[in-house]
Amino acid sequence: MLYEWLKALHIISIIAWMAGMLYLPRLFVYHAAAEPGSKESETFKLMERRLLKAIINPAMGAAWIFGGTMVWLGHHWDQPWFWAKFALVLGMQAVHGNMVGWQRAFEEDRNTRSQRFYRMVNEIPTVLMIGIVLLVILKPF
Fold it and tell me: According to the model, what pLDDT value does residue 71 have?
């Protein structure tokens, strides 16, 4: 029964993490169009900071804790699909780290990237998520 609870908590964590990872770049798209120092820009800073600190970061940490515990209990490291999934999760972690850096740049009014850049970046978590879900459900190898 413990494994099922861990799985449920892991899925809940992933849903929250992904919701934030999909929403934050959309905020960056609109923030990139705002004049630095404007009321609009300051509102985006607050929204981005709160989203990152209150939802994305805690959800990511919980996903790692619950997922890691499931790997330990289920001995998944013996299965090739797990290593492919793990590589994609590390990619998601890298995207997360970049988003933290971009949020800091906006916070300090030193963003140099365009709306188009953030629109393209917005697709990366979706592609990674699709790969991760397919590997976990289908276990193709």
Answer: 96
Using a 10 angstrom Cβ sphere, with 0-12 exposed, 13-18 middle and 19 or more buried, the burial of residue 116 is exposed
Which one-letter amino acid corresponds to residue 23? Y
What is the mean pLDDT of each successive set of 10 residues along the chain, which is 141 residues long?
Answer: 97 98 98 97 98 98 98 94 97 98 98 98 97 97 92
> For the whole prediction, is pTM greater than 0.70?
yes
Q: At what angle do helices 2-33 and 57-74 cross, to 10 degrees?
A: 150
Domain ranges of the chain: 2-138
Packed helices 57-74 and 80-107: angle between N→C axes, nearest 10 degrees = 170
Contact 11, 3 (CB under 8 A): no
Tokens of 128: 């990674």
* Rounded Cα gap, residues 81 and 139, in angstroms: 6
Among candidate residues 101, 131, 77, 129, the one with its CA nearest the CA of residue 25: 101
